[in-house]
Amino acid sequence: MTVLAAVLLITGAVLTLVAAIGVYRFPDMLTRLHAATKAASVGIALVLLGVGAALGPGELAFTSLVAIFQVLTAPVAAHALGRAVRAEPEHAGPGRPSSVPLPARAAALAAVWVALWGEAGAANVLGGLAAGSAVALATTRRGAERIRIRPVAALRFVGAFLVLLVRSTIAVAAAALGPRRLVDPGVRRVPVGRGSTSALVATANAVSLTPGTLTLAIDAEPPALVVHLIRPDDPAADAVATLHALASDALPVAEPTRGGPQ
Amino acid sequence: MTIVAAVTLGLLAAAGAVAIAAALRGPAGGDRMLAVDLLLVVLSAGLGTGAVLTGRTVLLPVLLVVSLVAFVGTVTVGRTLEREDRQ
Fold first, then answer.
1. Disulfide check for B5: which of A99, A208, A216, B53 has CB 3.0–4.6 Å away?
2. Which residues lie closer than 8 Å to A198 by C-beta, 6 or more apart?
3. Cβ count within 10 A of residue A118
4. In this model, does residue B17 exceed pLDDT 90?
5. How many domains is chain B built from?
């Protein structure tokens, strides 16, 4: 456990330093976003996991939560800053709002509650279920597209995403430290197949964390992602299409709910 | 573990220094916000490593607060900059 913690801490800190160098060296802001979203969030996640591994299981649950939060919010923050630089006025947006079924949301919130306490005692689990159910009920929206999740396909999506995340981090680190000719940024529109709204959104967020690509906008009709690339010759279009195919498997189009607006 | 934590803190301090340099250089508001966001993230990692170094975990909840503030702050500034652009 100690060796694992040491490896995680040092690797994470080195990656964070490389990300900072990338933010300093890259020529324009959209390219800097690549360093800040990919290398930095992975680096910090590794440091936080290392901290948890060094301190104990309760602390590990807590720091894992912060690490997951970091990785989940990085694409959103990058998207907000990216829009400030390059507004995409003509896209229709991803369409109807969607939401995860209520029991799944309540269970996820209960898990967050238990991780925050850092101890899986009966009182914490019951309190988490009560608080999670209350928040899940309060945030239910009428007419939202119900998200269906196929667990095995979802695991395959997450697996493919993690592999791409590692490759992406190495690529960005190489670009941050290497000669400047490795960086030749550009914007491209990548068409994707038809699928559910949630699959499109999941792909957009995953793409922001994978090799040399950053989602700037989502087109709903016809479905496409506007991505910023560190290098124009990147095989990134393939990665986007592959991720979207996996996401469509994991998050299929839901049957229209009876009585809800179409 | 003490040596590992100290080395980690040194690397993070270097990352923080580079982030401050990037924030000072800019040139635009978005570039500075990006660098400050990175600095906050480095700070939260440093807090965690400090807990390993001292063995005291009282500061761990601060990690969550710093991450939240960094996220909300970055999104807010991004939206503000976008609105300024449109006007």
1. B53
2. A98, A145, A147, A251
3. 20
4. yes
5. 1
Name the pTM for this structure: 0.80
Q: Token match 């020529």: residue? A: A27
Enclosing domain of residue A126? 98-142
Instruction: Read off the pLDDT of residues A100-113 as tens digits, 9 standing for 90 and up.
Output: 777 778 888 888 88
Half-sphere exposure of residue A154: CA atoms within 13 angstroms, side-chain side: 9
Residue A220 maps to a domain: yes
Task: With cut-offs at 50, 70 and 90, classify the pLDDT of residue A186.
Answer: confident
Residue A131 maps to a domain:
yes
Please report which residue ranges of A86-101 form alpha helices under DSSP H: none
Candidates A7, A10, A14, A16: best to mutate against B (most CBs of B within 10 A) is: A16
Residue B21 at interface with chain A, using a CB cutoff of 8 Å: yes
Determine the Cα–Cα distance for residues A110 and A133; give it in Å rounded to an integer: 8
What residues contact residue A37 under an 8 Å CB cut-off, 6+ apart?
Answer: A74, A75, A77, A78, A208, A209, A214
pLDDT band per the 50, 70, 90 thresholds, residue B78: confident
Is residue A136 a contact partner of residue A102, using CB atoms and an 8 Å limit? yes
ipTM of this complex prediction, to 2 decimal places: 0.88
Residue A234 has pLDDT above 90, yes or no: no
What tokens appear for A127 in the block? 């309190």
3-class SS of residue A213: strand
Nearest chain A residue to B33 by CA distance is A81
Structure tokens, A129: 């279920």
Tell me: do A165 and A242 sit in the same domain: yes
Query: Do A117 and A183 share a domain, yes or no?
Result: no
